Structure formats: structure tokens, C-alpha cells
Amino acid sequence: xKKNKNLIIAIAAAVVVVAVLVIYTVVNNGNAxxxxxxxxxxxxxxxxxxxxxxxxxxxxxTVDSDNPSASSSLVITVTDGTVTSLSAYPVExxxxxxxxIGLEFSVSAMEEVDEDDVTSLAESYFSSMAADYAAVLTMxxxxxxxxxxxxxxxxxxxxxxxxxxxxxxxxxxxxxGSFIDGFEEGLIGVAVGDTVDLNLTxxxxxxxxxxxxxxxxxxxxxxxxxxxxxTDDNVAVVMEGDYSTVDELEEFCRAYxxxxxxxxxxxxxxxxxxxxxxxxxxxxxxxxxxxxxxxxSLTASIESQASSYGLDGDTYCTYFVGMSLxxxxxxxxxxxxxxxxxxxxxxxxxxxxxxxxxxxxQVEIYMSYYGYETAEEVYENYISRDNIEMYxxxxxVADFLAENAVITETEETE
Length: 414
Prior knowledge:
10 strands, 414 residues, single chain, 14% strand, two-stranded parallel sheet, alpha/beta, four-stranded antiparallel sheet
């Protein structure tokens, strides 16, 4: 079944853009803590409200699971619990916006896709997939000079296999001169699937193994397959009908490289927007429900990433960032929550909050891609509706700020 590239791109964007915003915040916005007058956990000299250092300390932080905001260094507004959606919270009471129309910044120009890169990617993709089909595709084909032949071989000296003379699945470029004289030449004209004996003599000055120098040996060699050429017929077999011709495969690779170029450009643009807008806005207080929701979401995301490495969250964070999971999630929440509030205030001012229909469309994308049958399964297993709303809001605001900014595109220099 042919994969829906547009769907893949939409999902990738939905998942990755949020991650980019979060990572950019943690790594690059330590100096932007003046965008809130509530303090920042990014300073090693500050302590959180519970008296525990929130960064640069390897001491594990104890977080109240019912109220993680109690450990935050931000000024937290305790709500009555009836407000659970950021869009329903009066952020304007706690956010002062600067002049966000006409932001000025520079980004690198979008990279143009090179046709040589398209061909190279198509060949690499084809080769990576072709190994499982190579024996079938090339069975009976005669080995020629320049081919890459996958071979098994055993070397015999006086009828006994000698050490270092055997290998299975070796990729040998015929004519490369990698093996002793006569070995590669002896395989030219051998059919894939056949086994031959090569009667050869090691050079008298064979330094790699002097005990074999000048000795007559026999190599029994089986040609498993020859690396298939990227032809229309072979592409159709290897790609199992997803792509039936070389042109179709290259078009897919071209679209992928264009997506990567667009994604890299958009990532830099989003980062530039954040870097430009945060210093001109201030946040005085944040709601505890938002902080706790963000902390839990970040913790779950980190634990999911850790599990892909076979690690628990604490081990993962200790190894990669030098702090516990709770410390890292607190740091990220302390930095990220004020930013979300600034974006929400702009969304409210410019009527950029997502509609129910837009959120439903996003849920349908997740359902289609991940195979969920109901929206409830998406909320239970992947992402909450509040987080979908927040993601779309951030996306719309970032796009709005970029559309109304003065952007200078710079060419990269080698």
C-alpha cells in the first residue's frame, strides 16, 4: 500500500514542532528569563519555593505528584480547579505584551534541493531495501568487473581450512584489487548461486600473514548475489509496488528532501520568532493547572523517549543532561509555561485560537496515522485534547508572527 507522504509530513510536523519549541526554550532561552519577573529555574544561584535547588544540582528533587507547581520557582496563581483550559484562563491579567507586529530577525534561506542528492538518496534507499531481494533478482546473473558481489568463502591450505581465510556475506567489488591476484578475476563469469574453487598462490612477500607467503591454497567461493541495479523492474519488486519505476522513487526522495529543507527552515524560523518575541513580553504569574499539566506532559514525553533507549526517565536524564527526571521536567516547565502564556495572550488578541473543527481534524490525523479507531483512544494513548489545542494555538501564533515580521534571509557560506 503506497504510503501517504502528506499524512506522514503532517504527523511529523505535529509531533516535532512542539519538541523543537521545548528544546529551544531549555537550551537557548536561559538568558531570556527577564521575559518574566517571576524568576527562573535556569539560574544555579536561585532556589525554588520549596528550598530545593532546581538546576545544576545532582540532588534529586522531590515533587508533590498532586501539585508539581509547589516546586516551581515561578509565581504560581492557585486556581479553584474549575479552569482546566488555557484558552479559558484570563492570561491577559498576567501577561504584558510588547509590540509583536513587525518583529525583526534573520534566518538562513531555505536550502535548494540538489538533483545529485535526490539520485544519491534514491540509490541509497534502494540499496538498503534491495538486500532482501538481491538473490532472487540476480539469480543466474554472471559476475562482471565492477559488480559488487556478495560472497561466502573458505580458504584451504593442504586440504585444511586456515585461520582468517573464511567469511560469510562479504561484499567484494570485482576489480578493486582487495584480494590476492586471481581471486576477483576468478569470479568474473561465475553465475549468482554457483560455487567455484579458485586455485591460487599467496604472494611471496605477503606481510599480512607471513605463514601463508608463497603458499598454494584453494578458495571455495559461493556467489550469493550481485548488488542489483536500480532499474524500473527491480524498483517495482524491491519497493513492493509502492514505487514502480526509478522516476517514482526519485520523486518520493525529492519530495522528502524538499520536506527536510522546509522543516529545517521552519524550525529556524520558529526559533527566531520565539527569540524575538519573548524579551518584549512579561509574565507575572502562572496558573497552577497549566504548570502541572505541562510538567506531567513533559515527564511523559521524556519517559517515552527514554524507553526507546531501553532506559527509565531518571537514568536517561542523568546520562544526557546531568540531572534527575524531576529536575529536568521542572526546569523545562519553568521556562516553557511563561512562553505558552505569552503565545496564548497573542492568540486571544488576534483571534488565533483553534476551533473545535480544527482540533477534530488534528485528532483524525492522529487516528489515521496511528491506527486509533476513536478520538478517545488518541486522548488516552497519545495526546490530550488540551495539548492538541495548545499545539495548534502555538503553531497559528508562530505563523502569524512570522507573516507579520521583517525577515532577512541569509545565504549559508561554506
